[in-house]
Specification:
The protein is mainly α and 347 residues long. It has a two-stranded antiparallel sheet. The longest helix is centred in the last third of the chain and has 46 residues. The N and C termini lie close together (11 Å). The N terminus is likely disordered.
């Protein structure tokens, strides 16, 4: 009996675990960020309405919805990748290439062919990124940084540096603001949030599990890059239909927006776990802020980029130290629980 007591006291519950390996603690850790994101959303919604100054709702809310939905398809994979300490910088360039390929395919059945070809390209790029990071163990941020340059160069060559008009049928569909697209995005948000909470995709392996098998690395490290390319493919099609034209820099700025929303939603670049719900709510605040700045006083785009850059710089250490604090708090609670168990066993 005394040996059991010593074992319990010497190895408290939770030893060797991180807080994000516990579903309940992952949920508790996201709650403060979700509350902050929702409060910011309300505040920015008020600021946005004030900045309208009597402008027509149709001219304003359709672009707002389009930016939220398109940005949403960048945010979800960004959060999933950050949980593993990775980031896909090639998503914006991927979306631009997709838009150019589909726009250059022409009308009618050729559009379907262009969409199919762009899907194959997106899958191949995602697989290459996934293999280089998951199998060859290269840094995701370096691999996708190089890939973004490669895709941008290909886009310039394909388009010859020109703006390519979208097929008329795609513009008429209005996919970026259609209720069906919004519903699909919301389903993806909820589904991926559940994935991050209830499956290993939502947590980084323990230190002892880092040298896991090839199959697990391809699944949990490589597969998210394929998913991010598919989301960029979908975003590129939506952007083409919304803007009515494609150019090499079509997806520019969306990766940065997604990173800002992920950080504002409490997901740390240092990895560990990711918060899809709070990041998606934070995205709405970011888009509202961008639109309020543009409409309120014709704020230069450089100023908006400056604000977003400063927020990212500030949020990087904030989210990092938040997760360190959550980790320490978790282990203190587990140690207290272990001591209480030892005392109960002694009695």
């Amino acid at each position: 009996m005394s040996e059991q007591i010593e074992q319990v006291a010497g190895e408290p519950k939770g030893k060797g675990k991180h807080y994000y390996h516990d579903i309940r603690w992952r949920l508790l850790a996201e709650v403060p960020w979700l509350v902050i994101a929702l409060v910011l959303m309300v505040i920015m919604a008020i600021v946005f309405v004030v900045s309208l100054g009597g402008m027509g709702s149709g001219r304003v809310f359709r672009p707002l919805i389009a930016n939220i939905v398109i940005g949403g398809f960048f945010v979800i994979p960004t959060v999933i990748l950050l949980a593993e300490g990775n980031l896909d910088l090639s998503m914006g360039a991927m979306a631009g290439l997709v838009a150019i390929v589909v726009a250059g395919s022409g009308e009618s059945s050729s559009v379907v062919l262009g969409i199919f070809i762009s899907l194959i390209v997106a899958l191949l790029i995602g697989i290459v990124n996934g293999l280089l990071v998951g199998l060859a163990k290269q840094k995701g941020i370096v691999v996708t940084f190089a890939m973004s340059f490669l895709l941008y160069a290909i886009t310039l060559l394909v388009s010859e540096g020109r703006t390519v008009m979208a097929p008329r049928g795609m513009i008429d569909l209005g996919l970026a603001t259609s209720p069906l697209t919004v519903i699909v995005w919301l389903i993806l948000v909820l589904g991926c949030a559940a994935l991050m909470i209830f499956t290993p995709f939502g947590r980084r392996p323990k230190e002892g599990d880092q040298e896991e098998g090839i199959g697990k690395r391809l699944l949990f490290v490589g597969l998210p890059f394929v998913f991010s390319s598919l989301m960029a493919w979908l975003a590129g099609i939506l952007m083409l239909g919304w803007m009515g034209a494609a150019f090499a820099s079509t997806g520019q700025g969306y990766v940065e927006m997604a990173l800002l929303a992920a950080l504002l939603g409490g997901t740390a670049y240092s990895g560990g776990t990711g918060f899809v719900l709070s990041a998606s709510a934070a995205l709405v605040s970011v888009v509202l802020m961008q639109n309020a700045l543009r409409m309120g006083g014709d704020t230069p785009i450089a100023t908006i980029y400056l604000i977003e850059g400063l927020l990212i710089v500030i949020l990087l250490p904030v989210t990092h130290f938040y997760h360190i604090g959550a980790e320490r708090f978790y282990h203190k609670r587990m140690e207290s629980a272990g001591e209480a168990t030892a005392e109960a066993a002694a009695e």
